[in-house]
Amino acid sequence: MTRRQQFSIILILGTLSTISPFSIDMYLPGFPAIASDLNTSIAQVQLSLTAYLVGISVGQLLYGPLLDRFGRKLPLYAGLGVYVLASLGCAVSTSIETLILMRLLQALGGCVGMVAAQALVRDLFPVDQTAQVFSLLTLVIAVSPMIAPTVGGYATVLFGWHSIFVILAVITALILLAIVYVLPNGRQADASISLRPQAVLGNFYTVIRQPQFLTYALVGGIASAAPFAYISGSPDVFMNIYKVSEQEYGWIFAVLAIAILAPNQLNHVLLKRYSNQQLVSTTLVYQSVVGFFLVLGTWAGWYNLYGLLGVLFLFLLGQGLVAPNSAALTLAPFVRHTGSAVALMGSFRMGVGALVSALVSVLHNNTALPMVGVMAGCIFSGFLILLLGQRAIRYRSQHTDVGESIAEATL
Question: What parts of the sequence cross the membrane (predicted)?
Fold first, then answer.
C-alpha cells in the first residue's frame, strides 16, 4: 500500500468516525431557532439529542455482528443511506415529534461509521501501525467539537437551522461515494458468524460477569456522561440565559472542547509515570472538588459568563483523562470477547449519555443549575462506583487466588 493510498484510507475512516460527533454538535447553536420555528421549548428540542444518543447506543450493538456477518461495505451502504434520508427528513420536519423520530433514525444509520472505522483499521493496516492510525482517528474526533458548532452557528444565521441537516446529508453522501470507489473492502462476509440472539447475548453475558469490566464500564460510562449534560444544556444556558449569539456560542463550544482535547493528548505521557487506575482515581477526586464549587457557585450566583466558562473549563479538563483510561481498564481482562466488550462499553456510554441529556431536559428551570448539577452528579456517582467496584475486584482476585491454591494443593 502506497503512502497516498494510506492517506486516502485514513481520511475516509476519519470522516466516517466524525459523522456522529458532527451530528451531535453541529445543530446545537440552532436550538433556539428550532424551538421558535416548531413552536416548542428548548427542553423539547433537547429530547432530539437524547433520541440521537439512544440511537447510537442501540446501533452499536447491532452493527458489530452485522459487519462480521456481511462484510464491511454492505452494512456501511445501508447505514449511511438511512442516515442521508433521515438527515433530509430532519431538514423538512415541521413538528418536534417528527424531528425527534428523524434524529433517532439518523443515529441508527450514522453510528455504523463509528463501528466500521475501527474494524477497518484492523483489517487494512499491519498490527504495528494500528495504534498510530487509531491515534490519528482519535485526534480527528477530538477536533470535531471545535469545528462543528462554529459551522452550525454560521449556517443557522445565514441559511436557517434546516441547512445544518442538508449539509450533513451532502457530506455523508460524499463520504458514501468515497467508500464505494476508493475504500478497500476489508474483511469479507463470513457466513459462519451467528446472528442468533442467544449466541450474541451469551457473549455479552460472559463479558458483564467480569467484575473489572463492570466496574470500569460503569465508572467510565457515568463519569464520561458529564459532557453530554453540558452538550444538552449549554445552548439554553449560553444563548437564552447569557444571551450570546449563535456564532459566539460556536466559539465558546470550541474553546471548551480544548479542555477535553489537551489532556487526551497528554495521556500517553502521564502513563509513563502513573497507572491507569491512578489517573482515573486522581482525576475523579479533582473533578469532584471542582464540581462541588461549580454547583455551589452557580446556586449562589457567584459566576458571570466568564466565571462560569472558567470553572467549566477546569471541570472538563478531567474528561480527557477519565474516558481513555477507564476504557483501557474496561477492556483489559479480555482476549477472546474483546469485540463484545467494545460494543457493550460503547453502547453503555451512549445510553447513559442519552439518560443524562434527558434528565437535563426534565429538570429545565431557566437556570444553569440543571446542567451543572447533572454534570457534577455524574462525577460523584462515578467516584462512588469506583470505590465500591475496586473492593469487588479485590474480593474476586483474592478468592480466585485461594481457589487456585486449593486446586494446586489437591493436585
Answer: 7-24, 44-63, 75-94, 100-121, 133-155, 161-183, 213-231, 251-271, 283-302, 308-329, 341-362, 368-388
Report the alpha-carbon distance of residue 323 to residue 315 in Å, rounded.
14
First to last CA, the chain: 53
pLDDT digits (tens, 9 = 90+) for 217-272: 888 788 888 888 887 788 877 887 788 787 787 788 778 777 777 776 676 677 77
Asked if residues 314 and 263 have their Cβ atoms less than 8 Å apart, the reply is: no
CB neighbourhood size of 89 (10 A): 18
| DSSP assignments along 228-296, one per residue | HHHHHHHIIIIIIIS---HHHHHHHHHHHHHHHHHHHHHHHHHTTTS-HHHHHHHHHHHHHHHHHHHHH
Domains and CATH numbers, the chain: 1-185 (1.20.1250.20), 196-411 (1.20.1250.20)
Q: Render pLDDT for 90-139 as a digit per residue (tens, 0 to 9).
A: 999 999 999 999 999 999 999 888 878 877 776 777 755 655 566 567 66
Q: What are phi and psi of 195, to 5 degrees?
A: -105, 10
